[in-house]
Amino acid sequence: MLTLFVLKSGKAKIDPQAAVKSFGDVVFEIIYALTLDDLNEFEVHAPWFGVIHDNEKLDAYLQAALRMFLTWSDADVLVMYKKASDVKIAVHRCPRIFRKGVKIRPDCLLPVDESNLKFDTILNGWIDDISQV
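^ thats the sequence. predicted structure below, dont judge the formating
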């Protein structure tokens, strides 16, 4: 269902295996990339691709909801929220899952052209930053 890109965060506390494992059984292939620029260089073989940093993981609620969104959402981009700590919750747009064929900007996790894309937000859980724990 999903090609997963794992990006280097540059943080001291990382766990790329936990990042991958947090996606559960929806991962079709894993690609370890160095930068956002690298994402558009790889061929995606699954209907969706996702991006996570090596210091992040999906919580259990988000993992449980992911299969449903990948199966039923008609969106091109799935947005999640990141919890930076138990006190501070990032509420900015955090696109992390994209339909195959969507090109990502080299400076941020946003599509190159958002104008004709449909966004859907997953409110079922959080991306956790393990470097803040």
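The chain has three helices and nine strands.
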